[in-house]
Amino acid sequence: MTMTISNDDDERDDAPALPERDVLDAWMVPAATPDLTERVLAQVEAALPMGHVVTLPAARRRGGLGLAVVGVAMVAAAALVLGLAQWGRTPAPAPALPAVVAAPPLDAEPSPAVVVPASAPLVVHTMPRDATVRVDGLPLTGPSPFVASLQPGPHRLEVERDGYLPFERVIEGGTALELPVELPLRQVLLVVSVDPPEALVSLWEDELRTPLGRDGARQLLSRDPDVRYEVEATAPGFMSRRIPLVFRGGADEVVTMSLMRDPAAPPAPTVGASGVGASGLKDPFRGARVDPLESRASGSSSDLLDPFRKRSADGKGKGDDSGKTAVLRIGTDTGASPAMVYVDGTRVGFTPLKVKVTPGRHTVKWVWPDSMSSKTTITLEAGESEVVKGSPPAR
Amino acid sequence: LASQAPSKADVSVVAQVSGPEGERERERPELDGAALVAAQRGERWARRALVVTYQARVHALTWRLMAGAGRRDQAEDLVQEAFLRVFRALPRFSAAGPARLSTWILTIATRAVIDELRRRAPGQAVVPVALDELPGGERPDLHSEQRSVGRAIARAVASLSPEVRAAFVLRAYHDMGYGEIAEALDVGVGTVKSRLWRARAALQQHLHEVHGEQGR
Question: What is the reported pTM?
């Protein structure tokens, strides 16, 4: 055996040193008797009976609930793996399961214990962490992770928070569950990229159709969980297409669509004319209500350069370009989703965009779909062009 | 004998045989935050999780402290007593505080042992280490040496007072810092250093005796 002696952190020069760990480990501890854990727990239970918990009866099954226990088996398997990782280091008998309890405040008055041997823990990790979590209508103490113990049987789990879509599921008690719940944002910025670019893009909310524009069209949606969303693209000479929207839960959803040529359609004209766009297709938006901020995506160079033209950002009246000799190029930092931009309090559109402004001091504000915002001020000289980028504040 | 001396690698392998007890204290897992909160509420599953997580450490501590006093047969009683104290005090433990839960539990266990040792007259002063408590295997030369070193450490620790022994065991086997040991033993850091000095000196003397015997 190596008898190397290492210096312990005693500052005295003459201090005897502590042997290395492999030497110290020669003084080994025998294994504890196998039932020590049970004896410890029995003594603790006898001295400190489980008293400060609230009993929750299992919920009655509701007919037509329509919320099958989807994924419970997967969650249970995940919980089992987690449990094995937790218990794996020290072989131990299966954990005794608690009575049905919710999470009362720590200073709650003790109530009589109700012991139901087959109940099991439920741990819910939510994002955002300050969500409201209820089991069978009873709120659990937060923030995440939320802990409760459930009797065998069905229980209704609800998670909700302002600005997010709610989550609801029926879970089975009696099995240890660890459940991550990430609530999707209610507001989503929809961006549609379509080929051919002159195709008309529409949003369907159940049977309500809203024209969005053309390639690059954007729409800020406030999602309703009970509404079916679809995007449709149509173009003369092409077969129209309508696809359901699948939301990933983030702040923006980008949809890419390609239309197939209609073999029965006549060949597209090649010469432009009044009311005919550069591609030779008649502009279906001409005369229709189109948000000028969206129209820049259809290639209108004047709108692209100056969304202020009809909005009077600097108080000089509609369409007054005189004096706007400076340019602001406004974007968002890498990784940040597109944001609605306000310049001097006037909404000018989604990033990225380019805005003509008068020389002087201007305030730029970015607002993201989840209501986060950031603001900056910038001073521009005549003829100057500046790039400003915003990013959401850290949560 | 020198040619038969095990390499460092051999010693490491033997150390692993000892299982979780041989792990560095600060590398060992702490109880999950949700389970801690549930244990503070008195939930039975979380209490079990806490005991399973820390029992080996508490048992190692109480066994070493009690074996050093010749009362190793009471080590498991002290484990029970320590956990009872832990659960009584658990609602007051703050995960946001300076102490890790493991350090806090070992502090309670140490005080339980010292209280016990102070309460009753010590019995056997020096405890021989039973051969069957040491690892077996296919290297009799190695294990013979291991046993010799183990006995030397046991003799050294048995020669110490309970307070000095506690400081040494917490430092050497549970990686506690001077400040943590001072907190656990309710003494100043200077006193801890002094006690550790005495423990190391005793240990060095006993290990050199083993080394001298092997060199002859």
Answer: 0.42
